[in-house]
Amino acid sequence: MGRTSEKVMIKNYGDMVLANKGYIKPGEIRSVEIDALVDTGASYLCLPPKVIKELGLEFANSTPVKTGNGKLELRLFDGAKMTIKDRTIQMQVMENLNDEVPALIGYLVLETMDWVVNPKTQELMGNPLNDGKWIMDMY
Fold it and tell me: pLDDT tens across 5-45, in order?
């Protein structure tokens, strides 16, 4: 199996609200586009600290996390609006241990956006159970 990576556009949702109300210009919305590894063992979109700082995301809380190296406390941040291909959601992001750890797309993002990894092409595709269309589960 190879690696799957995907471009993710992340915007500061608080900035988007301010721009919508006319308090800042649309060009002042902080955003980044990054390549992230798809990691079905990760939960959230996990970003390096420098990216979170660049986006100006708001600290929410710290949470215990199990990793291959044992348990850690990692920080969650509010206010991220993320787009992968043509699907956009607002969700908390988790801070990576350091800036050397790559951005990761976790299973909560994949499930919420209804993406799956095509094992042959190593690309994200719409869930075949929903004919590739974005359909959210109610249960």
Answer: 999 999 999 999 999 999 999 999 999 999 999 998 899 99
This prediction's pTM: 0.90
pLDDT in tens, 123-138: 999 988 887 888 776 6
DSSP line for the chain? ----EEEEEEEEHHHHHHHHTTSS-GGGS-EEEEEEEE-TT--SEEE-HHHHHHHTPEEEEEEEEEETTEEEEEEEEEEEEEEETTEEEEEEEEE-SSTTSPPEE-HHHHHHHTEEEETTTTEEEE-GGGTTS------
CATH of 5-130, one of 3.30.750.24, 3.20.20.60, 2.40.70.10, 3.40.1160.10: 2.40.70.10
pLDDT of 101-121, one tens digit each?
999 999 999 999 999 999 889
Per-domain residue ranges of the chain: 5-130
Q: Give the span between the Cα atoms of 1 and 15, in whole angstroms.
A: 39
